[in-house]
Amino acid sequence: MPATTIPSTDIDPYTDDSILSPYEDYRRLRDLGPVVWLEAHQVFAVARYREVYDALHDHTTFSSASGVGLTETLNKAQKGSSFTSDPPYHGYVRGLVARHLKPKALEQFHDYIEGWATRLVDELIEKGEFDAVTDFAQAFPLAVVPDLLGWPIEEGKERLLEWATAGFNAFGPLNERTQRGFPLLKEMSEFLERMSVPGNLRPGSWGAQLVSDAKEGKIEEYLLPGLLGDFLAPSMDTSVSALSSMLWLLGTHQDQWEQLRAEPARIPQAFNEILRIESPLRGFTRLVTRERELGGVRLDPESRVLLLYGSANRDERQWKDPETFDIDRSGVTQHIGFGHGIHGCVGQALSRLEGHSLLKALADRVTSIEVGEPTWRLHNTIRGIASLPVTLRT
Question: 184-192 long-range CB contacts below 8 Å, 24 or more apart?
Answer without folding.
Answer: 184/159, 187/159, 187/163, 188/159, 188/163, 188/229, 188/232, 189/225, 191/156, 191/159, 191/163, 192/224, 192/225, 192/226, 192/228, 192/229
